[in-house]
């Protein structure tokens, strides 16, 4: 199940670090809060295919 955690949409300019909230607005600056889902760390590992393609042919066990 996806989490409903949101992050202040303007945290990069308004805060020193991301401000997370479960509501629609930032609790600190009262600005809009955006869904934090599009994160660089996708649990579905969308880069897995690219990583396997970039690696020369070999056993998948060599993951280190
Ligand atoms: Zn904020």
Keywords, separated by commas or semicolons:
64 residues, alpha+beta, three-stranded antiparallel beta sheet, 17% helix, binds zinc ion
Task: Write up what this structure looks like.
This protein has a domain at 1-36. It has a 3-stranded antiparallel sheet with strand order 2-1-3, with no helix packed on it. The radius of gyration is 18 Å and the shape is elongated. The protein is built from 2 helices and 3 strands. With 64 residues, the chain is of the alpha+beta class. The model has no long low-confidence stretch (mean pLDDT 79). Bound molecules: zinc ion. Zinc ion (ZN) binds at residues 8, 10-11, 14-15, 19, 26, 28-29, 31. One of its GO terms (cellular component) is ribonucleoprotein complex. InterPro entries: H/ACA_rnp_Nop10, H/ACA_rnp_Nop10_sf, Nop10_arc-typ. Keywords: Ribonucleoprotein, Ribosome biogenesis, rRNA processing.
Layout of helices and strands:
Elements: E1 6-8, H1 11-14, E2 20-21, E3 33-35, H2 48-54
Give a quick summary of the entry.
With 64 residues, the chain is α+β, with helices and mostly antiparallel strands. Helices cover 17% and strands 12% of the residues. It has a domain at 1-36.
């Amino acid at each position: 199940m996806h989490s409903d955690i949101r992050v202040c949409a303007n945290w990069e300019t308004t805060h020193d670090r991301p401000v997370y909230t479960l509501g629609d607005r930032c609790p600190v600056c009262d600005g809009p809060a955006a869904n934090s889902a599009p994160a660089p760390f996708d649990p579905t590992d969308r880069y897995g295919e690219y990583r396997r393609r970039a690696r020369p042919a070999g056993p998948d066990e060599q993951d280190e």
